[in-house]
Amino acid sequence: MQLTGDGVWGPPRDSDQATRVLRVAVDLGANFIDTADAYGPHLNEALIAEALYPYRGDLVVATKGGLVRSGPNSWTCRGEPAYLRTCVEASLQRLRTDCIDLYQLHRADPAVPLLDQIGALSDLQAQGKIRHIGLSNVSVQQYREVVQHFTIASVQGRFHLLDHRANVDVVRECERDGIAFIACEPLFRGHLSRTNRHLGRLTEKAGGASPAQLALAWVLHYSRSIVAIPGTSSTERLAENIDALSAELPPEVKHELIAAAGGW
User: Fold this and answer.
1) What is the largest CA-CA distance in the chain?
2) Tell me, what's the pLDDT at 67?
3) 188 and 146, same structural domain?
4) Cα–Cα distance between 258 and 71 in angstroms, integer?
5) Is 135 in contact with 155 (CB distance < 8 Å)?
6) 205/249 Cα distance (integer angstroms)
7) Please, how many CA atoms are within 13 Å of residue 263, restricted to the half-sphere of its CB?
8) Displacement of CA 141 from its chain's centroid (Å)
9) Which is the most buried residue in 26, 47, 106, 136, by most CB within 10 A?
10) Where is the signal peptide (predicted)?
11) The whole model's pTM is what?
């Protein structure tokens, strides 16, 4: 969800609306909220707690750490174990919880051995401060290295109709291993919410489903391992996105979507 300012930096333009979107999402049945300490930075986590704490019993709140910000659109890896431990402790406070449901390494720091970074999270998991560990923005090789030594619950990566090839192999690994793949930006930052040459002509064939619903349905039908996390700052778009969960893809529409995406 878009809960910060432009460039994922600073407060949202309308804090009340951001709070409203979070609460409506839960009211509509959403049970997974994803954020990161780098969003804002720190503001997203605090806003989620303000809007949703105490958390509903079945609600999973996931966050990420390992990136630092110096300004809008600036992202720098930092994966020293001591720093990651500090990140987790700070996220616990901002989210007002004593255990984070899913904590993801936002991006592997190339200057620090990957297993040391995940090892720090594993230590915190053993202390009861993290329930599950996830990866984000990893290659197949990095994924394989980690799962040989640690139990991983999820992998997050960019995945949408017009750009999915980079993570196809990761998705297949996740499906084989029974691990969730969290598809971020499934609507390509809103571009697939609008009528376009790939989706516009298919909406009628799909029973009036919107372009956004078609794009989300395609992502969700791609693999049983996929969980999609579309972002929005609109309650109307939110309801539309959630309805995509029940969208049916007629075979001819599915085939045309596959062709539009360049094949599986």
Assistant:
1) 54
2) 98
3) no
4) 38
5) yes
6) 9
7) 0
8) 21
9) 106
10) none
11) 0.94
**How many angstroms separate the CA atoms of 40 and 229, rounded?**
18
CA pair distance 166, 255, nearest whole angstrom: 21
Q: Where are the beta strands (DSSP E) in 129-198?
A: 130-136, 154-158, 180-184
**CA dihedral sign of residues 118, 124, 125, 126:** positive
For residue 152, give both structure tokens: 């991983």
User: Does residue 71 belong to any structural domain of this protein?
Assistant: yes
Mean pLDDT of all residues belonging to the chain = 92
Provide the 3-class DSSP secondary structure of residue 16: helix
83 included as an active-site residue? no
Could you give the 3-state DSSP secondary structure of residue 35?
Answer: coil
Left if phi > 0, otherwise alpha if psi is -120 to 50, otherwise beta: which for 154? beta
Cα separation of 249 and 255, whole Å?
9
Residue 36 pLDDT greater than 50, yes or no: yes
Amino acid residing at 132: H
pLDDT digits (tens, 9 = 90+) for 55-113: 999 999 999 999 999 999 899 999 999 999 999 999 999 999 999 999 999 999 999 99
Residue 26 sits in the same domain as residue 121 = yes
Q: How many domains does the chain have?
A: 2
Q: Which of 39, 103, 143, 222 is catalytic?
A: 39
The reply to whether 144 and 189 lie within a common domain is no
Tens of pLDDT, residue by residue over 45-58, are 999 999 999 999 99
pLDDT reading at 199 higher than 70:
no
What residue has token string 């986590």? 45
Burial of 109-127, coded b for 16+ CB within 10 Å and e otherwise, reads beebebeebbbbbbebbee
Residue 204 pLDDT > 90, yes or no?
no
pLDDT at 191: 76
Asked if 7 and 237 count as a contact pair (C-beta separation under 8 A), the reply is no
